[in-house]
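dumping these here so i dont lose them again. two proteins, back to back, each one seq then structure tokens. dont judge the mess
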Amino acid sequence: MFSLKDMLRRFTDVYNKNPTSNLGKLIGILHDQLQQVNDTLDTVRDWRDIDMAQGTTLDRIGENIVQSRGSSTDEVYRVLLKSKIARNLSKTDVNTIIQVLALALDCPYSDIRIVEKYNDSSEPEPAAISLIKVPTKRLNEVGMSPLQFGQIIQKTVAAGVRVAQIELTGTFQFSSKYDQLETGPTGFADEAMTTGGTLGEVYIPGNDYPLPI
């Protein structure tokens, strides 16, 4: 986008090219209008990305992949859109399920671990899986409850496979030294509450709304 000075510079020297001149003020009005158009075009380009889009733009993306919003916020709806796109390409094996969930939550594959229960030593089940490692922090960031996340998982696995358990993991660890307090990214928080580990539990609100999946 040209600046106001660049636009005035294109006139011949017989004109007063001072930005405060009459010509400068007139070109300034034109420049402001062109800047608004340029900003709008930048927004249109950026909002083609699910992570950047908002509001009705996300709804139109959902129409393209047949994923309704329901009562979901933009943050939760982005997870639904990403998971729907990934589910459309899913082969329903364990590795693909991990890829779908990692894509939906925007986290590394290593943050998710799935165990098949057919060889469980205590409660074996032929067609069931357990998620024993799911990033609690990411669920909290998007405002999604474990019940809602479980809906996405159940829609991702093959028909007839049950999701038996979802274990949400935190990062908190106790001190490695006896009688000594440790703070940091995995320990207790500091006084400013800017650092500290997260517990492996998630609050489930009583007014959960079902996701349209």
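---- next one ----
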Amino acid sequence: MIQPEFIDLLKALIRQPSVVGAEHSFFRVLQRELEERGAKVTWYEGLLVAQGKDPFSTMFSAHIDRHGLISTGPNEFQYAAFISANRTDLLNNSVSEELMSKITERFGSVPVFAYEPWSGAYRGNGVIKNSYVCEYRNNLIFEIDGLDSAVAGTPVAFEDKLKITNGRLEGQLDNVLTAAALVHLFSQGFEGTAFFTAQEEAGKSWRYLLEWFRRFGGSTNRLFVVDTSPFPTVEAANQQLLVLREKDANAAFNKEATDLVARLCQQNQLSYLYKDHYVEAENVRLTALGEKPRSMGSTEMGRIINASNGLVDGTTIQIPTTGYHTMSESASIESVEAFLKLLLSLSTRPGEMS
């Protein structure tokens, strides 16, 4: 059973804006929640680090940015992730881009609000009236009623609140769900380190993490990156409680770390699936049908392994969801319970981390 304290925390955090590239105000909220739970909190550019009494015992990382918009001109708004990444083209070379190209129609009539990125101060609200891929800029463009006065550079968040329906948590869960889990872990006596990174959806978060490890990392920098993982249907998501990986499009993950997570899943009777195996099997099927293969996906873990030249390795743990990158992304309560149980199990086995 999920503790009411966790649900209350998640409800509070999901209401706070954290648009890609404008996460400062969310860091301020996280700092308060973490310090109330006894963590030592330090800010760096693009990174908030929360530490317990034994920082290198277990290390988790969650990105805290969520998709939203940014004003790019008079009554013109674009997807913040592409602005933050200095991207001008939608290349369809990632899971995120493949799906966003298909779901522009889902944002019609979605309420949004503008905010000041450092303080989180409210700057007005509106409703998305249209969204489309511009044929000239090859990027997602949004039109909004009610935010005509927003100046260029103003972040615009999707108005959100947590819903619980038919045994599932629903909202813009990626990635406030696992970030909330790491905050909650400190309530349970967690003594390791939790990293909260910015701009993961723009492909930049690994840089902030790597800078920290270059300055402060130990001889064994084993990292567990936590996130959500998309599935096409509720039925497909419910086939397993948790999602693991042996690799992504960037790198192979640490085998010992992955095997440890799998072993703990088995010991705790938590069903799991390897997402890379799932995608490979799906691509065999799609190729046989003459259809385009799916992307293997690009994760924070794979990016930092690929770039760190052996300084950082580890593996990933994900919660299966549906409705990826929409306001109705959902995860089963059973999966979230399994995820919280696994994190606690990992954090109480520091001797197995080295």
